[in-house]
C-alpha cells in the first residue's frame, strides 16, 4: 500500500507483481479492490498498479469539485506513474475509470503501451443529451447529500444496469456492498460534479487519432455499452471488441 501526496490530495494505490506495468482504474463508487481477481491471475506476468481515484476508497475527498475535473484525475495518475518510475503502462479502466483512461490516451499518448476499456464510453457528444446528463448527475449528487451513503448505495445497486448482479453469490454481493459503503459521500458528490459524464469533455471526435492497440471489453448482456463499444471500435485505428458471455456491466466481477 502507498500514498502519493500531490496537488493538495492524497492518492492511495497498491502495487502487485512484476513485469510490464498495468495501471488499473476502477469505476464510480469503486476502489482498488475492484481488480482483486485480475490481480490474482495476472501478477505473475505484470506489475499491476491499482489506484483509488480522488474521492474514492482511501484517497482524499476534497470539498472543491473542480479538483475532480478529469484532466486533474489524469494528472494524478501520470504523477503516480512518475513516482513509481514507469514511463509507459497498459492503461485499463472500468466504466468511469474507462472514461478517465480514454481521455488520458488523447492527452498523454506517450505514456501508453495499450488501452483496455471495460464498459466505457467516450463521453456524450450531443449538447442537449449532455445537459440532461449533467442535470441528472446533479440530482444524484443532491440525493447523496440529503440521504447519505447507505441509502444511496441501496439506490445505486438497484439500477437496471446492475440487474445481472442478482446472479452473483451472496457473499460476493455483500462484499461489493460493503466496499461501496466505505466511500466518503463528499468524494462521490464531487466526482459527479467534477468529472461526471455530463461535465466531462467528450473525446468522441478524437478516437481515430489514438494510435494504440485498444481492447474494448463489454458484457454481452450490456446492450447499451456493447453498442458504444462497437461504435468506438469502428473509429479506433487498431482495436477489437470482446463481448463476455453471461455478463452485464461488470465482466471483471461477473465472469473474471
Structure description:
With 256 residues, this protein is of the alpha/beta class. 40% of the residues lie in helices and 20% in strands. The protein is built from eight helices and eight strands; from the N terminus they run βββαβαβαβαααβαβα. It has an eight-stranded mixed sheet. A hairpin with a 2-residue loop joins strand 1 (2-6) and strand 2 (9-16). Helix 2 (70-84) packs across helix 3 (96-107). The longest helix has 31 residues, at 127-157. The radius of gyration is 17 Å and the shape is globular.
What keywords describe this structure?
256 residues, alpha/beta, eight-stranded mixed sheet, 8 strands
Strand and helix map with partners:
Elements: E1 2-6, E2 9-16, E3 21-25, H1 36-42, E4 47-51, H2 70-84, E5 89-94, H3 96-107, E6 112-118, H4 127-157, H5 170-181, H6 185-195, E7 213-219, H7 223-233, E8 238-244, H8 251-254
Parallel strand pairs: 3-4, 3-5, 5-6, 6-7, 7-8
Antiparallel strand pairs: 1-2, 2-4
Briefly, what is this?
With about 260 residues, the protein is an alpha/beta fold. It has eight helices and eight strands, in the order βββαβαβαβαααβαβα.
What is the terminal separation in angstroms?
A: 23 Å
Shape designation = globular
Mean pLDDT: 97
Give the helices and strands as they follow along the chain. Answer: EEEHEHEHEHHHEHEH
Structural class: alpha/beta
The largest β sheet comes out as: 8 strands, mixed
Q: What proportion strand?
A: 15-25%
How many β-strands, per DSSP? 8
Task: Please report the number of helical segments.
Answer: 8
